[in-house]
Design brief:
By secondary structure, the protein is α/β, with parallel strands linked by helices. The chain is built from nine helices and 13 strands.
Length: 306
């Protein structure tokens, strides 16, 4: 088993990755600011408090580690929509510094949480595989693609092994609706509080929704010295429209839902469904939780007493 550090280990997806890696028997370190309660369940996880934008903190977290899971983002698709330099100043620059520290620390492999929900842009294919040319149109997705490119540079220049995981639309427990990212928790929060659900466009946009525990299991499988490819799609392989998601939420909650329709931002992509056969063929792991079951688990977690 390996020594693994999860950068962003107290975040939504990162905390589930911490738990999945620990369950697989790895020695896990979680690096984050820990401005709130600890999110992950693993009691044996080592906690390192620090700032991703502080190189000294990053060096301390990476010392002695074999695998680095880069699951921290300083922006969301919404927060960088009107400030494209934000990704450049923070995510891209700090990621390059992270890779430099990883090389100096003798890290064996970096696993990067890219995006499958936005990186491909608009394409006519019913399902997108990794051979499709990425044509991102949002600052968030453009930044993710740039970081993938810098990983190729560090692989070629310094021999740093890496893999980029293009993750579709993960959702589930621990996802905070106030982050303005993740339509499922945002809609469930509005259902819980009795406030209107904001629908961008007419509800026909299609996304590939992946339950977070399924995603974490897939991600943990990449804690290996090498893989056949340096890029993988992670998703459910199924598409659901926003209107379908609303119907599922209505059925799960049993609540009347008030909808407010707004024009979709120009950088939104109409349809994203991922072909995940490259990953499933190599690792033999598939999404197991249906959208209805995943929404039900998320709803139950949201209503659970603190």
């Amino acid at each position: 088993m390996a020594k693994c550090v999860v950068v962003g280990g107290n975040g939504f997806l990162g905390s589930h990755v911490v738990d999945a890696l620990a369950a697989a028997g790895h020695e896990v370190t979680a690096f984050d600011r820990f401005s709130g309660d600890v999110s992950f369940a693993s009691a044996d996880t080592r906690i390192v408090v620090g700032d991703f934008l502080n190189q000294a903190d990053v060096r301390g977290a990476l010392a002695g580690q074999q695998y680095v899971f880069h699951f921290l983002s300083t922006t969301t698709p919404a927060s960088s929509e009107n400030d494209p330099m934000l990704d450049v100043r923070t995510n891209i620059a700090a990621s390059i510094e992270l890779f430099e520290v990883a090389c100096a620390a003798g890290v064996e492999r970096v696993v990067f949480a890219s995006t499958g929900g936005a990186i491909y842009g608009d394409h006519p294919e019913p399902a997108l595989d990794e051979s499709v040319l990425p044509q991102p149109v949002s600052p968030y997705a453009i930044g993710k693609l740039a970081i993938e490119g810098y990983l190729r540079y560090f692989r070629r220049k310094f021999g740093l092994s890496s893999v980029s995981l293009r993750i579709s639309n993960p959702y589930g427990p621990r996802q905070r609706a106030n982050k303005r990212q993740g339509v499922v928790p945002i809609f469930l929060h509005h259902a819980l509080t009795g406030t209107p659900l904001t629908v961008f466009g007419d509800g026909s946009m299609v996304r590939d929704f992946l339950y977070v525990e399924d995603a974490a299991t897939m991600i943990a499988a990449t804690a290996t010295p090498e893989s056949r490819f340096d890029t993988y799609n992670l998703g459910s392989g199924e598409g659901h429209s926003i209107s379908e998601v609303i119907d599922v939420i209505r059925a799960v909650t049993g609540l009347p839902l008030e909808l407010e329709y707004q024009p979709a931002p120009t950088t939104f992509v109409e349809r994203v469904v991922l072909d995940t056969s490259r990953f499933t063929d190599e690792f033999d792991i598939r999404s197991a939780v249906s959208l209805e079951e995943g929404v039900r688990r998320t709803w139950d977690d949201m209503r659970a007493p603190v």
